[in-house]
Amino acid sequence: MIFRFGVVILCSIAFVALGSAQETETTINKSLIPLQANELSKFVPPGWKIEEKLTGDLNGDSLLDFALKLIENKPEKDQSGDPRERSRALLIVLQSQDGKLVRAGVADKLLQCTRCGGAFYGVVEAPANVKIDKSVIIVEQDHGSRDLTNTTYRFRYDPETQRFILIGFDFADSDRLTGKNVSESTNYLTGVRRVSRGKTVTSSTIPRKKIFLEDVGSEQFEEDAEKRLNL
């Protein structure tokens, strides 16, 4: 009885420790990001730095705006020489007519971390590719091992709400051993979703609603897509 009781206690401690470890995953503290500033550096909270800066007119006012890919400001490798896991965040900053910089959106669950690429990337840091094309912010990511997942998110400025909304989401799952491919493409402006399984393509309609940049989490979007596609 004493032995069993000891095992139970040890297991309980292990589960608590595991739960605590899972809760330590870093997300950016949005409350530390000002709504306005005179310099881009002022939007970067302590413990973070700019990994990449993209520029373009994002709201159609002919002024230069910014999409900042932020990353945790800590060494790329640990004492053993292994890559560290560093979280990322996407920050959108608009320039106003008076020259001030205004925070327009912060995505804290969208960009994958540097060690979230799975076996496909091994010890190499997994990328989170961000680009601007005709005022649309595009985020492309992939991860996995034998099954490789590719996702593309497209965001555009919505004048009515003065926020960035999701206008498109593409999801693809590829079995690199068998060559089997399943994908779906959702247009949130038209409310049309197309699913491709090999040469077979089907279409369906979905409710047209505005999904804001801040509410998009890559893990949840991928899980939902996998359920829809029965993966």
What do these coordinates show?
Helix content is about 15%, strand content about 40%. The protein has 2 helices and 12 strands. The chain has helices at about 1-25, 220-230, and strands at about 35, 50-55, 65-70, 90-95, 100-105, 130-135, 135-145, 145-160, 165-175, 180-185, 190-195, 200-205. It has a 7-stranded antiparallel sheet with strand order 6-7-8-9-10-11-12, with no helix packed on it. The chain has a 5-stranded antiparallel sheet with strand order 1-5-4-3-2, with no helix packed on it. Strand 11 (about 190-195) and strand 12 form a beta hairpin. The longest helix has 22 residues, at about 1-25. The termini are far apart.
* Mean of all residue-level pLDDT scores: 89
Q: Number of DSSP strands?
A: 12
Detail the poorly predicted runs: 1-23
Based on Cα principal axes, name the global outline.
flat
H/E order of the elements?
HEEEEEEEEEEEEH
Portion of residues in beta strands equals 35-45%
* Rg, Cα atoms, Å: 21 Å
Number of helices: 2
Identify the strand order in the major beta sheet. Answer: 6-7-8-9-10-11-12
Largest sheet: 7 strands, antiparallel
Q: Assign a percent range to the helix content.
A: 10-25%
Structural class: mainly beta
Top keywords for this entry?
231 residues, mainly beta, 7-stranded antiparallel beta sheet, 5-stranded antiparallel beta sheet, 2 helices, 40% strand
Brief sketch in words of this structure:
By secondary structure, the protein is mainly β. It contains 2 helices and 12 strands. The strands form 2 sheets. Strands 6-7-8-9-10-11-12 form a 7-stranded antiparallel β-sheet, with no helix packed on it. The protein has a 5-stranded antiparallel β-sheet with strand order 1-5-4-3-2, with no helix packed on it.
